[in-house]
Automatic annotation (TrEMBL):
Pathway: Porphyrin-containing compound metabolism. It is found in: Membrane. It comes from Auritidibacter ignavus. This is COX15/CtaA family protein. GO terms for biological process: heme A biosynthetic process. InterPro entries: COX15/CtaA_fam (IPR003780), COX15/CtaA_HemeA_synthase (IPR050450). Residues 1-18 have a biased composition (Basic and acidic residues).
Amino acid sequence: MSGFALRDDVHTQHHTETSRSPVQRTKDWLMPTSVTGWTMAVAVASLITQIGIIVTGGAVRLTESGLGCPTWPKCTPESLTNTPEMGIHGYIEFGNRTLTFVLTAVAVLMLLAIWRLRATYRAIFWLSIILLCGIPGQAVIGGMTVLTELNPWVVSLHFLLSSFLVCLAALLVNRVGLERRIGGGEVEQVPSLVDGETTATTRGLARAAFVLGWITLILGTVVTGSGPHGGDAEAPRHDFDPAVVTRWHVIPVYLLIAVVIVLLVLVHRLASSQRQRISVWAMVAVIVLQASVGYYQHFNGLPIVAVLGHMLGTGLLAWLMTNMMDRQCSSYSWHDTVVDPRSPRFTANVDPATLVADAQAEGASPGPAR
Ligand code: HEM
């Protein structure tokens, strides 16, 4: 289906609003022909659930429930679910497995929400597909963690894939948010995710912060693998000295702080947008929070509530570092139908080529790379 046809759909939708059956109305609500509040709500739900599963996975590890279900995909060789005799650990581990269905439901709703727009909102569509595919991927790695009796490298991989999915969900929310903001409105200039001034330096710093964030996440999992919270009293541990690997984990944090502070100064000197400035301030806030909890847990014998807080912080950091980079470096600028002269959103006698030229002059790189 072409983007042109889609916009015609939207146009007719208003006229047929009252004559549609309840089934048709539900279908149009779940599978809209424009980016709606529902699309945005499901995108935000994707992000929240992806961050949430990091925390609930952490709760499994910290309550030593990692082998609460001793096998996979069944909970025990005989039973799909946990049994009362397995105690609290069985409930916690099986409860976490059950959350996979919540994640799947949200991912399917997201795919449905963009399905009728898939031909033109390609970036959003593909992000939704990858998020959906990530769930079976995570289920399989989750199964491997159980079958390897909580090998710390496999546990790390499980956590890092979740962080990666958080990054993708953050991109999804930004793109849906932009389309939602411009949807239905008049187009005066090409709306772009990068909606304020950037320079090669600010873009480089945002990318550096993203890379440093990832190095911190990876080294953090090595600290965890060397520490006492393996998910089960018998779980294998790395041979590294926890004090030494903690020092390695903190080095990229210091570099990250330096990079983000320089970026903060620069975005206030440039004609940055409010969204760009907020994205950097949000990073400052999450790093301060995360580093404080990190030091607290380190000097206080790793209390599980603090470690859980540190895990929530990692999910938030994965989101916010992606958001900050997206708002400096993204090439996502507008939707095809914006330059469709038959679109209800296209109001003026503006040659599409002019819109493209304007976008390029403003530093946004338009085109298929979206
Ligand atoms: C931006 C800042 C930080 C980020 C993004 C971060 C991220 C992480 C991650 C991803 C983990 C592994 C979680 C897991 O595998 O379940 C971790 C563990 C850990 N981090 Fe950090 N961290 C940060 C700052 C700090 C700081 C400043 C300290 C201070 C010493 C610290 C101390 C620790 C410790 C001790 C662990 C192991 C916890 C355990 O045994 O379960 N972190 N961190």
